[in-house]
């Protein structure tokens, strides 16, 4: 009887401790995303537009943007045009890809994505066009960090 009790207690202790023993003490790093070609990037942009265009009228309104990306500053009060057409969205996506593809080889590498996030290699986010508007569909004009803000 004592042997059976010891066996049951030992089995219960191992069963309770197993999740802690099996857990990886150091979380594995996220696997690197593969390079993305311009064709893949544009297909993803098309899919994003189609997902946001709730009423399928070929335009994305501020309300549709807000519904698709809550809490991202894309609601009706954001500095964005009232509507964005599919053509405008795809043009912006192409400009965005071209800005990220620093070496112009037709694909975006992990290093190029990292550079875009950190504003390296001349790929800083923001900037103003000749008309005083930003190049993105939201039209925001964000001066580069090194340049003084326009008055």
TrEMBL record:
Keywords: Signal. Residues 1-22 form the signal peptide. GO terms for molecular function: calcium ion binding. Residues 117-151 are annotated as: Disordered. Residues 124-137 have a biased composition (Gly residues). It comes from the Bacteria. InterPro entries: EF-hand-dom_pair, EF_hand_dom. Residues 40-75, 88-123 form the EF-hand domain. Coiled coil: none annotated. PROSITE patterns: EF_HAND_2 (PS50222). Pfam families: EF-hand_7. This is EF hand. It comes from Formivibrio citricus. The lineage of its organism: Bacteria, Pseudomonadati, Pseudomonadota, Betaproteobacteria, Neisseriales.
């Amino acid at each position: 009887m004592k042997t059976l009790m010891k066996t049951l207690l030992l089995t219960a202790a191992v069963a309770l401790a197993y999740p802690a023993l099996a857990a990886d003490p150091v979380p594995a790093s996220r696997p690197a995303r593969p390079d993305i070609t311009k064709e893949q990037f544009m297909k993803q942009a098309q899919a994003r537009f189609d997902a946001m265009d709730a009423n399928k009228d070929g335009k994305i309104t501020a309300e549709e943007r807000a519904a698709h990306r809550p809490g991202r500053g894309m609601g009706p009060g954001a500095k964005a045009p009232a509507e964005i057409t599919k053509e405008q969205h795809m043009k912006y996506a192409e400009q965005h890809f071209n800005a990220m593809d620093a070496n112009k080889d037709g694909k975006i590498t992990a290093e190029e994505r990292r550079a875009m996030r950190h504003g390296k290699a001349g790929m800083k986010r923001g900037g103003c066009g000749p008309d005083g508007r930003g190049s993105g569909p939201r039209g925001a004009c964000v001066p580069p960090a090194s340049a003084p803000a326009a008055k």
